[in-house]
Amino acid sequence: MTTTAPAPACLAALSRAGELARTLADPGTAWPGGRPDGGRSWPQSLAGGASGIALLHIERARTGHGDWDTAHTWLAAAVHGDISAAANANLYFGAPALAFITHRAAGASRRYLPVLERLDEATLHVTRNRLNQAHQRIDRGERPPMEEFDLIQGLAGLAAHHLSRHPHHGITRDVLSYLVRLTEPSPGPTGLPPWWMNVGPTGARSADYPHGHGNFGLAHGIGAALSVLSQALLHDAAVPGTADAVERICTWTDQWRQGTQDAPWWPGLISMEQARNGHIHPRLRPRPSWCYGASGTARAQQLAGLALRDPARVQAAENAILNALRDPLQPATLDGIGLCHGTAGLLHAAWRMATETGNLEIAAELPGLAGHLATALDRDDHDPELLDGAAGAALALHTFATASAPAPHWDTFLALA
Q1: pLDDT tier at 2 (50, 70, 90 boundaries)?
Q2: Taking Cα atoms as reference points, which of 271, 159, 275, 291 lies closest to residue 220?
């Protein structure tokens, strides 16, 4: 089911998305002052490099609003140089990131199939190595590090890609089976879920989190596993135990759900002290971002409710995002324009949720939010990147304006579809 925005809001958003795309048409000039070296600005980085900007141009070309020559130019820039299939490769970097964006291009042009086949092989290699390490860790009875199962670095992200790329492939079954195993109770009366990490929120050991933490978010927590497993159920790609795994995760998130039925919210993470005390202070409510807040957690809950055929859960999730949209204090806490921490993430997650069930109340809030995002884009210069910058904001505006996110979905890398 789709929702349709009022025509003026659509036209304004589409125009602004087009303007942004035109400023990002040339890899040689997209970065003011020259492209920075290293980090997530590397070409094969989905978050900050050419791969992410290529995704914008691929989606515009796929929907008839951009040209394939520009998309191809950015794809060529993304695959330039040595491509990583080593331990640092994941959905956001290296061969899996390139396989993800090339899969979107290959649906419209066979010219990309030979490249995609090579990237597929590299991604299979990465995934098998990561699965072996994860199962060995579980066999040893150790707590998981963040990079084992999170979306950005870990197996939830690889599962999201494989489920989209080839839902009935053996590697997809294997990585979904791992996510199921991740949720199975650990031996011993710890009272902590098996996905409780042995590190702090940065992914490293921390004196502030000597006993690790429990993470709810889509970027780095169990929210991504909940989303991917729920989508496997919804798309008839589930492995044995998938529904039980979704229910186990929901039992934990229900335990920590705060607020009221009309305005529920979930913490971004909890410490051992909070787990022992069973209390979350209201001031710890996260901003409604994709990475840790309602933009991500509510969408994961909506998917879980649909997968489990639990209308009360679906309603609570939609109430959560609606409250985030209507409360003037919550969007004001967002950090910038981007998909991760900013307004674009809230806009797109809310659009995805409204579209999923035809929720007209959520849809009615979107034109104003899209206008706010467009205004924010006009105020300052912004980094061109996908995750926190202009490319991601342009994708959110483009999708809102066209009411179109054709499969394979570009927002799979956010675990939103």
Answers
A1: very low
A2: 291
